[in-house]
């Protein structure tokens, strides 16, 4: 009959007897609540069953012979044997019933023994089975269930007997059959009630199907027992036939048991794998705390559930999971079932010497003294031990101790199941660790190990949501790009790592610290006031500005720090981390004026609002004629011929007035509108050159290129089309590009430059001498000119170093066959010095400021005279 004394609802009660290693928290609180509810249920079941048994005993006194004293022990042995031949059927995870052969001795008991003897034999056999299986936490409940089963069976049998009108001392076979079928149904009713008490769910359809199957199995068992008794009582010589039928039935049950075992094993494997996968997903989705900076807090309650599932599947008294969830941490143990002795694992435990990946079966009766001592330390008679391995890496160990049925112990099916389960568990663990690694990588910077921007956003969300006074610091190291250009990215990366360590030393390990990009860092100071944040920022700047030893060099660094606090929130609205980062970034940009530590103030937002407005209005400004092109002449040295002009963009904004190019060009470039700007300037410049050509003048025009132009694969084709559209020879167009523009992505820029040079366009390197990579890359660039940066030209008259730099650039350019252009020529002395050095072209305020088209024409008319050149071309000569 089905009862709840194997892996039934009692397993939930056993879970309430949690060992010391069980986790605390919501899961354990729920288990304690279930324990109390189950105790109340047990208190109700046992007394009511005893009262019902007393009533049935008074109602149906035994009227047969009492001299057969051996009937009671024999029935108890029969019940005990039937219990050992049980077949477990899972109903829900952790809920199962045992289909046993107890209907056979029960139906016979109706004919040969009084109610009290049958009841005592059944209770003794059931309790003995529980104690043998070391299931001590459910004895009272199951004792009540045993009493209720037999009591209800004899009550129904008595009612049927009365209905049939049978006389005293007679037991009709129909009454015995009805009573026997009542017992499993009564047990099922109690178990379903226990499911409700423990707040487990079971659909009505599932309950009805289960009751139907139990009734069918009970009917078969009772029929066999009843038939056998009637046949043998009438024909004693027929007992071999009855025995053969019983053995055949037992064989069918064993076959059915194997099928159920395979089904349950597959379900258990799936359950364990899903549990591990879900626990990993929940850990990944769980918000991280500030203390662990998105490190995964291991919830061992999840692993206790997995251990319980393995224990129930193996019908083991105890299962121990030893897990190493992080590569460098020691193993931690999770116990399901009986509590383990304290510090039972020896330093060189023989059960944990696991050279392979197979299950090892240890029995105390077959073990050597060393293994026997290890089993005794665990309080176990036998143990299955299997390692959890992945790519020769030990992830953990699973131990199962003492099968609940001590009549058999662990068998080959248990060994196979645990081995397969360990393989699935190892794979699931490996996937969980991979997920943890991916999650860590998603929220951390691979170079420094600090948080990245998404990780910083995740960490800062909770304190900001709780309106804790906080400050976000942003730190920028200024020399990163120069070091990467001069020495390569490997040395720049070393500087970044060194800067990260310095910041960590100043702020301490508790502060959330992130590398945003390049050499930019952010820190979250929780519970910090703005004045204190300013002092911390000053310390940070001083620490980061100390020289950095790089290989054999010492790099002088400069750090700027900006910060924004939640106290600057407006109208009581919650400020999120992105807003604070944006404000801290504004404060960093505001430090460019001289201060190296700045806190955010609302007025800074107006500057960036103006920049935003300019970007959004730029296309409209192009269409409405607010943007124009001015030209600055370039003359040859020493001939003073006007060779060309440089096209410079100007913007007359209707609201802001004249906007400096240094303000709006970077904004336009950052917004991705530089292509439209370049096309506008190029068209205007080529149109001007075309009109000069129509007048018989060959004046070239120079147009500045952006980094984004050099990243546009279609740019050379666009330029070629423009030259053809205006009918301008390619040699009259010059493109000026900065070193930083080329060095930002030389692998992408160089092919673009070669295509432009192949068209016949003149290429010039602007601001030459300000970068670290000039000498290394100059020979590789397909350029025709170098322009000496005006900072050196302006300083020639007072600084011998600048004078030396200019002379070196002129000599270098000539040695490479390049034309040398000096910009920033504002004095006659500078022009004379450049002429003496052999500089080819001069440009600057001494010659002319940038002029609009109309003023340029007037300038050309007033200061130049037209003469016929060597090739019958009109040239312009500057009048002295």
Automatic annotation (TrEMBL):
<dbReference type="InterPro" id="IPR035919">
    <property type="entry name" value="EAL_sf"/>
</dbReference>
<dbReference type="InterPro" id="IPR050706">
    <property type="entry name" value="Cyclic-di-GMP_PDE-like"/>
</dbReference>
<keyword id="KW-0812">Transmembrane</keyword>
<dbReference type="InterPro" id="IPR043128">
    <property type="entry name" value="Rev_trsase/Diguanyl_cyclase"/>
</dbReference>
<feature type="domain" description="GGDEF">
    <location>
        <begin position="468"/>
        <end position="602"/>
    </location>
</feature>
<feature type="transmembrane region" description="Helical">
    <location>
        <begin position="107"/>
        <end position="132"/>
    </location>
</feature>
<dbReference type="Pfam" id="PF01590">
    <property type="entry name" value="GAF"/>
</dbReference>
<dbReference type="InterPro" id="IPR029787">
    <property type="entry name" value="Nucleotide_cyclase"/>
</dbReference>
<feature type="transmembrane region" description="Helical">
    <location>
        <begin position="210"/>
        <end position="232"/>
    </location>
</feature>
<dbReference type="GO" id="GO:0071111">
    <property type="term" value="F:cyclic-guanylate-specific phosphodiesterase activity"/>
</dbReference>
<dbReference type="Pfam" id="PF00990">
    <property type="entry name" value="GGDEF"/>
</dbReference>
<feature type="domain" description="EAL">
    <location>
        <begin position="611"/>
        <end position="864"/>
    </location>
</feature>
<dbReference type="Pfam" id="PF00563">
    <property type="entry name" value="EAL"/>
</dbReference>
<protein>
    <submittedName>
        <fullName>Diguanylate phosphodiesterase</fullName>
    </submittedName>
</protein>
<feature type="compositionally biased region" description="Low complexity">
    <location>
        <begin position="10"/>
        <end position="30"/>
    </location>
</feature>
<feature type="transmembrane region" description="Helical">
    <location>
        <begin position="38"/>
        <end position="59"/>
    </location>
</feature>
<feature type="region of interest" description="Disordered">
    <location>
        <begin position="1"/>
        <end position="31"/>
    </location>
</feature>
<dbReference type="InterPro" id="IPR001633">
    <property type="entry name" value="EAL_dom"/>
</dbReference>
<feature type="transmembrane region" description="Helical">
    <location>
        <begin position="172"/>
        <end position="198"/>
    </location>
</feature>
<feature type="transmembrane region" description="Helical">
    <location>
        <begin position="139"/>
        <end position="160"/>
    </location>
</feature>
<keyword id="KW-1133">Transmembrane helix</keyword>
<dbReference type="InterPro" id="IPR029016">
    <property type="entry name" value="GAF-like_dom_sf"/>
</dbReference>
<keyword id="KW-0472">Membrane</keyword>
<dbReference type="InterPro" id="IPR000160">
    <property type="entry name" value="GGDEF_dom"/>
</dbReference>
<dbReference type="InterPro" id="IPR003018">
    <property type="entry name" value="GAF"/>
</dbReference>
């Amino acid at each position: 009959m089905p009862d709840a004394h194997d892996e039934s609802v009692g397993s939930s009660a056993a879970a309430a007897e949690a060992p010391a290693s069980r986790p605390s928290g919501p899961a354990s609180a729920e288990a304690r609540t279930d324990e109390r509810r189950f105790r109340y249920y047990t208190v109700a079941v046992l007394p009511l069953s005893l009262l019902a048994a007393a009533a049935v005993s008074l109602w149906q006194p035994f009227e047969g012979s009492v001299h057969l004293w051996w009937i009671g022990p024999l029935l108890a042995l029969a019940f005990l044997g039937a219990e050992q031949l049980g077949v477990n059927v899972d109903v829900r995870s952790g809920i199962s019933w045992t289909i046993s052969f107890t209907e056979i001795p029960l139906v016979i008991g109706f004919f040969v023994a009084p109610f009290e003897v049958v009841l005592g034999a059944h209770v003794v056999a059931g309790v003995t089975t529980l104690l043998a299986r070391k299931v001590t936490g459910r004895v009272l409940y199951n004792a009540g269930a045993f009493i209720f089963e037999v009591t209800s069976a004899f009550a129904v049998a008595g009612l049927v007997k009365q209905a049939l009108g049978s006389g005293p001392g007679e037991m009709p076979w129909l009454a015995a059959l009805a009573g026997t079928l009542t017992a499993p149904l009564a047990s099922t009713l109690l178990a379903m009630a226990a499911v409700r008490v423990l707040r487990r769910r079971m659909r009505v359809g599932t309950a009805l199907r289960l009751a139907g199957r139990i009734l069918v199995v009970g009917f078969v068992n009772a029929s066999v027992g009843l038939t056998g008794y009637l046949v043998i009582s009438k024909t004693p010589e027929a007992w071999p036939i009855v025995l053969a039928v019983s053995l055949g039935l037992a064989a069918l049950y064993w076959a059915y048991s194997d099928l159920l075992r395979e089904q349950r094993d597959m379900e258990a494997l799936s359950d364990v794998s899903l549990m591990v996968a879900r626990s990993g997903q929940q850990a990944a989705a769980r918000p991280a705390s500030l203390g662990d900076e998105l490190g995964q807090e291991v919830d061992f309650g999840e692993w206790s559930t997995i251990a319980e599932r393995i224990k129930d599947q193996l019908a083991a008294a105890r299962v121990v999971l030893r897990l190493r969830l992080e590569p460098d941490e020691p193993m931690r143990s999770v116990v399901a079932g009986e509590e383990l002795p304290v510090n039972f694992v020896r330093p060189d435990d023989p059960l944990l010497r696991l050279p392979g990946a197979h299950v090892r079966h240890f029995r105390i009766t077959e073990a050597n003294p060393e293994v026997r001592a290890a089993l005794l330390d665990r309080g176990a008679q036998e143990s299955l031990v299997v390692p959890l391995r992945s790519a020769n890496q030990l992830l953990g160990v699973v131990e199962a101790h003492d099968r609940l049925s001590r009549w058999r112990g662990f068998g080959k099916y248990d060994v196979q199941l645990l081995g397969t389960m360990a393989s699935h568990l190892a794979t699931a663990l490996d996937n969980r660790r991979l997920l943890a690694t991916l999650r860590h990588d998603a929220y951390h910077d691979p170079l420094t190990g600090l948080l990245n921007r998404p990780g910083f956003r995740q960490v800062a969300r909770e304190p900001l949501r709780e309106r804790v006074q906080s400050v976000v610091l942003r730190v920028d190291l200024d020399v990163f790009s120069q070091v990467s250009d001069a020495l390569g990215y490997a040395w720049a990366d070393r500087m970044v790592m060194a800067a990260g360590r310095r910041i960590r030393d100043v702020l301490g390990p508790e502060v959330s610290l992130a590398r945003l990009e390049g050499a930019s860092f952010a820190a979250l100071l929780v519970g910090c006031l703005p004045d204190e944040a300013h002092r911390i920022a000053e310390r940070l700047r001083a620490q980061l500005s100390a020289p950095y030893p790089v290989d054999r060099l010492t790099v002088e660094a400069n750090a700027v720090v900006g910060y924004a606090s939640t106290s600057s929130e407006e109208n009581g609205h919650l400020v999120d981390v992105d807003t604070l980062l944006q404000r801290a970034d504004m404060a960093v940009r505001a430090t460019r004026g001289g201060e190296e530590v700045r806190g955010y103030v609302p007025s800074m937002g107006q500057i960036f609002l103006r920049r935003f407005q300019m970007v959004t209005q730029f296309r409209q400004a192009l269409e409405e004629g607010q943007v124009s092109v001015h030209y600055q002449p370039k003359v040859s040295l020493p001939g003073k011929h006007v060779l060309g002009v440089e096209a410079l963009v100007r913007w007359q904004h209707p609201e802001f007035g004249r906007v400096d190019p240094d303000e709006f060009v970077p904004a336009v470039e950052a917004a991705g509108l530089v292509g439209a700007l370049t096309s506008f300037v190029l068209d205007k410049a080529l149109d001007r050159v075309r009109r000069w050509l129509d007048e018989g003048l060959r004046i070239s025009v120079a147009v500045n290129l952006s980094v984004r132009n050099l990243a546009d694969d279609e740019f050379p084709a666009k330029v070629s089309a423009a030259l053809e559209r205006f009918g301008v020879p390619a040699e009259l167009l010059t493109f000026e590009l900065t070193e930083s523009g080329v060095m930002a992505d030389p692998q992408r820029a160089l092919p673009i430059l070669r295509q432009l040079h192949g068209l016949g366009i003149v290429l010039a390197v602007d601001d030459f001498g300000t970068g670290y990579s000039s000498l290394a890359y100059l020979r590789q660039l397909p350029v025709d000119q170098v322009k000496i940066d005006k900072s050196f030209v302006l300083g020639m008259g007072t600084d011998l170093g600048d004078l030396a730099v200019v002379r070196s650039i002129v000599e270098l350019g000539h040695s490479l066959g390049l034309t040398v252009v000096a910009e920033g020529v504002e004095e006659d002395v500078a022009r004379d010095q450049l002429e003496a050095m052999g500089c080819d072209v001069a440009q600057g305020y001494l010659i002319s400021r940038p002029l609009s088209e109309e003023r340029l024409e007037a300038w050309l008319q007033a200061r130049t005279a037209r003469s016929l050149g060597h090739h019958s071309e009109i040239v312009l000569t500057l009048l002295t």
